[in-house]
Each structure stands twice: as C-alpha cells, then as structure tokens.
Amino acid sequence: MLDLALKLARSRVLALLAVAFAVFGGAALVTATGVLAESGLRSHVAPGRLAGADVLVAAAGVKQVEEDLDAALPERARVPAALLDDLARLPGVTAAVGDLSFPAALVTGDGQVAATPDPQAAGHGWSSAQLSEGAVSGAAPAGDDEVGVGSAVAAAAGIGTGDSVEVVAAGQAATYRVAAVVDAPGLYFVDSTAAGLAAVAGGAGAGTVDLIGLRTESGIADAVATAARDLLPTGLTVATGDDRGDVEEPGAAAARPLLLVLSGSLSGIVLLVVGFAVAGALGVAIAGQRRELALLRAVGATPRQVRRLVDRQALAVAAVATVPGVALGLLLAGRLRRLLVDGGMLPAALPLSVSPLPALAAVLLMAAVVSLSARAAAWRTSRLPATEAVTESRTEPRTPSRLRTSAGGLLVVAATVLAVTPLWVRNELGAGVVPLAGLLGAIGFALAAPALLQTAGDALAHRLPARLSPTSWLAVANLRGATLRMAGIVASLAMVVVFALTYTLSTTTLLTAGSRDVQAGTLAQHRVTAGALGGVPGDLRADVQAVPGVLAAAPTAGTTVLWPYTELGEPTVESATATVLDPSAAGVLDLGVRAGDLADLTGATVAVGADVARSRDADVGRNVDLVLGDGTPVSARVVAVYDRALGFGPVVLSADLAAGHTTSGLAQQLLVRTDGSPAADGALAALVADRPGLALTAATPPGTTLADAPAEVWLNLATITVLLGYLLLSITNELVAGTAQRRGELAVLRLTGTTPQQVRSMMRREAAVVAVVALGSGLLLSVVPLVALGVGFLGRPWAAGPVWLLPAVVLTVVAVAFLTTELPTRRELRAEPASALSHAG
Amino acid sequence: MSVSAAPTTVTTAPAIALSGVSKVHPGGVRALDDVSLTVGAGAFLAVMGPSGSGKSTLMHVAAGLDVPTSGSIRIDGAEITGLDETRRTELRRRRIGFVFQAYGLVPSLSIADNITLPLRLAGESADPAWLTELVERVGLAGRLEHRPAELSGGQQQRAAVARALVARPAVVFADEPTGALDLTSTREVLTLLRESVDELGQTVVMVTHDPAAAAHADRAVVMADGRVVDVVDSPSSAELARRLIALGQG
Ligand SMILES: Nc1ncnc2c1ncn2[C@@H]1O[C@H](COP(=O)(O)OP(=O)(O)OP(=O)(O)O)[C@@H](O)[C@H]1O
Ligand SMILES: [Mg+2]
C-alpha cells in the first residue's frame, strides 16, 4: 500500500513539496512552542554565587494554588536567623551560613560605577564568601570600614587589597578599605555591617536572613536535606543539586511562568495557522489526484483503501519533513529565548530545558493534523460510486457540501461574537482575542467560501457586459467552473490579510493605548534612575526636593501581586504587575482617578484600575485579599479607582504595604516635576551629575513610534513575521502547485486555438479577480475585530498602527496572486502544444 | 517517396502539402524520415501503420502543433514553417480543426461554449444558421447547456467534431477519434466525418489503427518507421488488413 502511495505521489511533486513545506514549518513552530512550554515548567536556574553550598534553605518560592499550577513568587521572603544554630548542629554539616543580599556598587576613581551583573543584590556578608567556591586573597574584613571585593569588580575598577574605595551600599555612600579580593561576584562586608545595610535597603530585617547555606561532608547532601526538612517549620524549602539555582535567584525562577504564558498564548495561533496551511496544501495535492483516486476506485479499491492510501502518502511526506522541522524548531526556540533575554523579559540565568518531549509532541501533532486533513480531503472522492467518481474527477464537484458550508457559517458568527471582546475587556487579554477571532473567522470563511462564491458568481454572471473579450470571458468561465479551487485560493489569501491586519494592529493598538495613558498621566518631566547602584538611594528624594524649582518628586517601584478571585465559580489566581507608590505620587502622576484619592495610599491600601474594580467588586472602600510578591497574604483597602490602567498596570500598592516584601527595598526610579524653568532643569541635572551611578532621562519617551516600543511589542512583531512568513510561503507553494495542475486544461485551450498571449491574459484576469475577492473578504473579516479594538482601547472606530501596513498587505496579496499564476503558466507555455497534448485528458 | 490523395472535386491549391519533412525527437528518435505528402481539398485521407511508426508525429507537424526538424509544410498554400507560436496558433484557429482520442473539451465550459470556442478566441461570432445546422448534424441540440462531464463519451466526441468543423477549416485532423468509443459511437463519428467531406466539402485527415475505420476514407497511406510505405485508393478493410499484416511480417 505504501509502495503504491509513493508511486502515485511521484507524479505530483510540486503539490507534495507544498505539503512537505507546510509540515516542515509546522513542525518547527510546534516544537519551538513546545520547548518554551516545557522550559516554563521544568527549566532550572543554574546555581551561581552559592554553588559551594551543598544545601540551601529558603522561604518557599511558590504560592500553592488549588487545582492549578503553583504561582511562582518573584520577591524573596526571609528566613529566621535563629534556625542557623539548629541547622549547624545537624550531623554532617560542616558550616551553616546566613546569606544576605542588598544593593551595592563600587565607584571607581573617576566617579564611574564599576559594572556588576546584579547591582540590586551585589552586597553580602563576609560569611557568604564561604559559600562560594572561589579563592580568597587577603584577610577577612574586620570592621565597619573594610570590605572584600569580587575579583571581576576589582579588575574592572583596577584596585587591589589595601586600596581605599568608595562604595554605595543600600544607597549610602562611604569609603572602605579593600581587605580581600574574592574569586566570586559581589562586595562582602563584615556580617554585622551587612545586616545593618540589608535592613536599611528594606531587605532582611533584624533576626532574619535571605537564605541559609549549608556545607556538608561530601556525598551526604541529600541526607542532610532530609534531616533539615524534618527539623524546619512549614513554609521553608530545602534545595540541593540543580534546584539550588531557583532558590538562589527567586526573581529569575519566577520568570519561568512567562515562558509558559507565552507558549500558551502562541499555541492557539500556531495550531490554527499550521492546521490551515497543512490542510490547504493537502487539499491541493489531493485535488490533483482526484482522477487517479477515481480510477483506483473503478479498478476495485474500496473507499477505505483509497482514504488509507491518501493517508499513507501524506504521512510518508510528513515523516520526511518533520525531522528537519523539529531541528529548526529547536533553533527557533533558542532564538526566541535570546530575544526575550535581550528584551529584558527573561533573566539570562534561566536556560531552556530541552528534552525529547516537545519533539515527540510535534511529531504526533503533525501526524494527527496531516492524517485528518488528508482523509477529509479525500472523503468525497472516496465515497462516491466508482463510476461517478471517474466522471466527477474530470470536473470538480458541482455542489459544495452543505455540512461544510454551515460549519463555516457558524464559525464566522462565533468569531464575530468573540471579536467584540475588546469592548468589555480593556487589557492584554482583550487585545489578544482580536487575532484569534480574526483567524477563526478566516477559517470559517475558508469552509463557507465555495458556496458563497458560487452564489455570488451566479448572481454576477447575469450582470456581465454582453461583449466581454474572449480572455475575460474564459477567465470568468474558469472561475465559475472551478469554484472549489478558486475558493481555496481566495480563502488562503484572505487569511493572510486577516492575520497580518488583526495580529499587527492588536499589538500596536495596545501599545498606543498604553503610551497614550503614560503620556497623559505623567505630570513629571524627569526621571532619575540608579540602575548601577541597584536602586535609588533613600536620601536622594530630599536632595531633589531641595532643588529650587522642583515642585514634586516621588519614588516608584514595580513588583508583582497575586490576586486570588473566583471566576465562574472556580478559584483562580491572577499574577499582575503592580506599581508601588506613596501618597506623594499624586504630584507626579495623574492616573485618571475616577473615585477616591491617591493621597490616601498609606498603610495597607491599594488603588486599582477601573476594569479590575468592576470585574472583581473592588470599589473604593472595599477590602481586597491579595498575596504580595514574597507570598505574604494581606488584606488591603481600596482607596482609589483609576482609568489609565493600560499605561500604569491594574494594581497600585502603597509603599507602606509593599515595604519589607520585596527583594530590594530601594525605589527603581524617582519621578520629578519641576516648574519647567531652565534654571530648575539645570540644577537638577547638576545634582544628578554630581552623584555617581545616577541617570537623568525624560519622564516619558518622546514619541510612540515603533522604535521606542517595549520588548513585548517587538516580540509580538517577531512572532507575526515568522508566522506570516510561514503562512505566505505555504500558500505560495500551494498556489503554484494548483496552477501547475491546470496543465491539462491549458493544453486543451491551446489545441483549440488559444494563443500563448491569450492564455497568459486569461490567467492574469483570473488572478486579478482572485486578488480583489480575497482582499475584499479579508478586509470584511477584519473589520469587526478591528473596529471593536479601536472603540474599546482608543475610543474611536479604527485601530492604531503603521500607515504602510494596509498598502503592504494589499501589495503582498496582489503579488502572490499574480506570481503564483504567471510563473507556472509561463513554464507551461514554453512547451510545444503537441507535447501539451499528452496532458490534455 | 511521394504520394498525393486525389481530390473528389478539382481545385487549384492542395489543402496540405508536405515536402521532405523530417522530425527527430529529442533523444534522437527519427519519428519522420523525409516524408512528402499532398492532400487535396475535399479529400478524406486515412493514415495507418504500426504503433510507433510516426502517425501522430506526422499529424502534429502537419497541423503546426510541433515544428519539423527539416522540410516544408504548406496549409492552403501558406508556408507555416518558420512562423512563431502565436502566428501558428492563429493559423490553426482559422484553418485547422482537431479531434483527439480523448475528447479534449474544456471541463468548465458548456457544450455550446466548447463548440464555439475557436470562433470566440478569434474574436468572431458564429453564424447562427451554420451553428444550428452543425448542432443538428452532431445530434447534440438538447445538450448544449451541459458540461462535458455530463455527456457520454460518444456525445463528447461528437461535440469535439462539431468544434473542429465550426470555423470551416481547411483541414480537420483526427487522431484515433474512435479509439475510446463503442461500436455505435464509432459508426456515428465516422459517418459524421464522411458526411462533412461529402456534403460540406471538408478535407479530413484521420489517423487510425482500425482498417474498418480507414475504409471510410477515399485513400489510405500506410506508415512504417517514419516513412510512407504504401498507398491504397478507395480502400476496403479486408485489403488494408492484409497489407498491414504483411507489413508486420516483413
Ligand atoms: N515527445 C517525444 N519525444 C521523444 N520521442 C517521441 C516523442 N513523441 C514520439 N516519439 C517517438 O517517435 C516515434 C513515433 O511516435 P508517434 O507518436 O508518432 O507514433 P504513432 O505512430 O502515433 O504510434 P501509436 O499508433 O502508438 O500512437 C516513436 O518511436 C515515439 O517513441
Ligand atoms: Mg499516435
């Protein structure tokens, strides 16, 4: 059977190449998505600074969620230092160290800050140096004014033991003597000094440490870990081996779910696009074999045998294409991770986890899609009575299947209903529905298209001018006579239109709406950051406020909160980014408060976006139960509800509430509003220039051009490019194969006296009709989602995006429609008509 | 060797005149070897010969569907060698009609549209009286709006004959026009061709394996290895069968 299937396949090389490409790209996309998903579940941060600790004890980094994946906590909760003694007494433990981290940076002689990989957590106690595996040169620091310096920093700053250096630790600048150079990252202070600095920075308070590291006798780490687990209270986690990295860097580990979310949001679209491309290519391939299949039926093959034959043939091609596809998918996942890391969305410390699972999933999924599409495409021919099959194989089925048409209609209706979501849901989720609704609509259209086009064609046929040129007349006759083929082409090209418009515009509209909020809601003109110092020093705000002409200065920071709520009776936890503000924020930000007052942001209070307030019953005066980034459950009162949630996020925490529950307590930036006078701006600039490690930028980016867009937008655009490229190439192959299958028809025309010019002109006219109909239906399918998007996010009935998008889409569709008919037609015409005769059957 | 089929009526220019035509296919097969052949207007010529003897090639080259390697071909007195594909197509459209073994109708066009296709392509419209006569002749008056797939093989072949005749060409070429038909349909198609010669003065060249079919012609030429090896006037099927068998043995 397979042997026969392959022999039949050989004569349809072009169509099967199209299938192979669709499967190849599909396998790559599915594999890449799968690798991201698997990494989201299973990848581990490699142990870094604390690689020398055999066992690490820390607060549990996850929040248990009923019947769902546990939510990772990005902020560090602390461990009671009192446990140190108990742990040190466990048999086999050779050392127990309480580890602390806090912002620290070393200022070089010329007033620059020596670069460190993680300035937010570069400061540690000297005893932590025991947990690194690095060598120490010099003596332990002994006293408040001595410090051990990591070898990389020392080399960058050009200093060594005995030198005097300026260090900004926990935002406080002081001069230290270098007592030791340690072959490990960071700056190491005397333990008591470190504890004091950590407290100042809002990190581990009195009597607590960030985590406890144990060194054990060799080979018994697991036994010690088990003993430690028995000893410790609940809420703490004990890590050995590869798990240690996750404990050491909770922020990096907590980024893991991003991969899961990303692959989740991609998977739907990837599956739709891949299914569409594969089914389309197989449809063309099998349409080209209708005659052979019918003849097979005539010589005694049963319908099941015919379907099995088609299935085997498709699977054989798919098997060949899947292997390189999976390989490409692994590369693609790597590229995507790089993109995420470069965009600052994923910590560089988090690797991808690659196992055979995604590859296996891709193989199975592609096999299922291919098998299903092949059998569906051969269904009709296989089931007809043998004689009828032979007759029908000369033309195409006249009446499109009723079932197919109604399924398509239903899908279009469902997609339209889905498409109005952005009117109610003004957030990323709402915008994300737009391309999905567009794709569903396009697939529905593909199903209903044969019937639709036949109806439209019959209606139009009566209105055609009586004296058409022979080539136009032939073109129309061909299109009407081959509605199924034409519908396939039109639906594919319409899909390109819908996909490009809805996906791109939902991304850019969300971006525009967000930056509109930020532009309108930011009263401050300046932003002071201190990334190199690990956070804005606490005393900077007073200094800035003292500058003449400065009207207001307020610190802001970002964190994550978990918001448990019930949705449709099911308990759910949403992980949301939250801005941390204090009451002074009202002077620099205008969040569009519609009820309450930001000035009340003291104590256990929050402000929420209007969307959230409505959907989760969180109006002003209500109490909401939240889980802070370190896992602490809190009950907070809502003091304000604001409109500009797209720009500033759905939740604002009061600084009081967040204090002590973030890994670093220092603010990430200081927003400054001046009276606008050059003198004030100058004085502020002078102040910032005077203190090392500070940077002054405009409070809002100057424009909303794509170049300033955040990394998420670029990620989305990269995804669109890859998927669109795949879709376009698949469709191009499919159309070229489809045109090549018309050689018999073209041969008959030539033998009847059609000149090569007339054939070309006829084909061009067909392509023109196809392009126009495809563009029209694609635009029609995109209108509802895009209008809903515009109204929901921008308050106007059109979406925001680059002006070149629509012309580019139109040009692409027209180019594909023409090239995929022109080139194969030219090739066909090059042969003498006598040789074409052998194809006229 | 040179032969000519005697016309039933006397005219000046022959419908087709081949002189010294050779055709070497890519790959070196010499399908035609220095063939000269004249067909007078209003003649019915049958071309016979074993498989692979060059009958189809002869027809393709004579009709301008393929270019000869050497030699000259005149249709209605006009030289066609050296014309480009577009010129040759236009000439075929006007002067030559085709009937093939596999009917060669355009599947998406109705029977009526298929029959008038050559005229339409030339930008002309059919004379309604002529069209009616033609459709009556081929017996398809009731099936004009049907698609080819809805007709029997014999009906499709009759539609193909009507299409070949519609432009009143100088010559109709038929390559095994009855090869795929049953006895009744075969008789119908052959009668059609014969009548077109007798009643319309049409010139017909028909390639066939079947001595009974060839017996409908005024004259039969027999080919072997790319050459014309025998000519039989007013052939009977018994005589033709005898000569073909002799060729097979010799
Ligand atoms: N396109 C081609 N390329 C190469 N050789 C060809 C080609 N067409 C025909 N031939 C060869 O030319 C010779 C004559 O072929 P032709 O088709 O004219 O034979 P025929 O007499 O029509 O045979 P049949 O009765 O089987 O149809 C054969 O040997 C054939 O193999
Ligand atoms: Mg032949």
UniProtKB/TrEMBL annotation, chain A:
Residues 265-385, 721-832 form the ABC3 transporter permease C-terminal domain. The keyword Magnesium does not apply. InterPro entries: ABC3_permease_C, Membrane_comp_ABC_pdt. GO terms for cellular component: plasma membrane. Keywords: Cell membrane, Membrane, Transmembrane, Transmembrane helix. It is found in: Cell membrane. Coiled coil: none annotated. It is a multi-pass membrane protein. Its main location: membrane. It comes from the Bacteria. The chain crosses the membrane at residues 258-287, 314-334, 354-374, 407-425, 431-453, 486-505, 713-736, 767-793, 799-820. Pfam families: FtsX. This is FtsX-like permease family protein.
Automatic annotation (TrEMBL), chain B:
The lineage of its organism: Bacteria, Bacillati, Actinomycetota, Actinomycetes, Geodermatophilales. InterPro entries: AAA+_ATPase, ABC_transporter-like_ATP-bd, ABC_transporter-like_CS, ABC_transpr_LolD-like, P-loop_NTPase. Signal peptide: none annotated. It comes from Modestobacter muralis. Keywords: ATP-binding, Nucleotide-binding, Transport. GO terms for cellular component: membrane protein complex; plasma membrane. GO terms for molecular function: ATP binding; ATP hydrolysis activity; transmembrane transporter activity. The keyword Nucleotide-binding applies. Residues 16-250 form the ABC transporter domain. This is ATP-binding cassette domain-containing protein.
